Amino acid sequence: SYGSVSQAASTNSTNSQATSSNASNTSQESVLEQGSINQQEEPPLTHREIAELSFAFCILWFAANWATNASLAYTTVASSTILASMSGFFTLAIGAMLKTESFSSLKLVAVCASVLGVALVSESDRGETPHGLVNNFTSPITNITEPTAPAAPLFGDFLALMSAMFYGCYTVLLKVRIQNESRVNMSLFFGFVGLFNLVLLWPMFGVLHWTGVEPFELPSDTKVIWMIIVNAIIGTFVSDYLWLLSMLMTSPLVVTLGLSLTIPLALLGDVVGYGRVLGVAYWIGAGLVLAGFFGVNGAALSERDEANRQEEVAIRSAASCTTAAVAASALVSEERDDRLAAPASAAAGRRDEREPLLRASSQS
Question: Engineered SS bond to 278: which of 40, 217, 282, 303, CB 3.0-4.6 Å?
Fold first, then answer.
């Protein structure tokens, strides 16, 4: 019986070690799986949340676009373009405050290079663009002329700067609320945007027409109608859809500087389509815009790699701590089994010592 107890205690100790080993492996796997789960996205936005976000985007998007187009009536095209490109600074500043962007010197240099490049490209195109589109500050925006001097440059520059700020606001807002493209139904989002535009903004056509500020009339030229349709499909819907998708997949600042590429690319289209000759300022400016775009992309990729590395280290550290805790628990279990097995082993030893004496006594 003593031998059976000893053997059972030894078996329990062995089973305890095997169980603790399995528990250690299982706990480590569970920690790694939990880390993978934590990396997954949050639940998708509800229809109500998408509608609220679409409403906010609709208002800010309209304000940004209206301010940009209105600024062209009072200041030069070059000034409006340069100040509108300041959206990179607003995006970086607002994103840093709301923790969607991490501020770094490389990003700041990239934004400065992009703005400087836009300025050079715009200045190279200054000679072939009208300096303003109205005669004085109080003239209706519909009375388009081509004066030799800006009508109200300070007011126009202010509108262009406000456009850049509105752009930075709604870009960062979408990133903060959505975070990942899998959390939002793009079709539903833009459907709500169109609905709010129809209900809230379209009635302004009638108000402006009835008050005489801006008469409403359909284009009389079929070519103009087709230009509007193509621009609405490509220049608004498709471009905004791709813009939102790319912003959610990368970062607001990357997409903002990417949009600055449209300015040198537009002038490059004049070279291909109309044989225009571009000066040195254009090529330097285009190079700076490209450098800013690739610079901020490099910074974003470095930050992502560093974040992934730190997250992996944290997961491994948590797994190691869990494994150590399981090992300590197994050690305590082994010590308990050893204490239980010790009396049985001692009793078996004393029995083995008495057996020769008992046999000798029985023989005598």
Answer: 282
Range with top average pLDDT, 20-24, 161-165, 176-180: 161-165
- Residues in the chain, total: 364
Kindly state the greatest CA–CA separation across the chain.
139
Task: Look at residue 125 and tell me if it is in a domain.
Answer: yes
Is 15 a member of any domain? no
Q: What residues make up the domain containing 249?
A: 45-312
Q: Annotate 289-347 with DSSP letters as a single string.
A: HHHHHHHHHHHHHHHHHHHHHHHHHHHHHHHHHHHHHHHHHHHHHHHHHHHHHHHHHHH
Q: Is 28 inside a domain boundary?
A: no
Domain count, the chain: 1
Domain assignment present for 39: no
Highest mean pLDDT among 52-61, 240-249, 313-322: 52-61
- pTM of structure: 0.68
Q: Do the beta carbons of residue 41 and residue 248 sit within 8 Å?
A: no
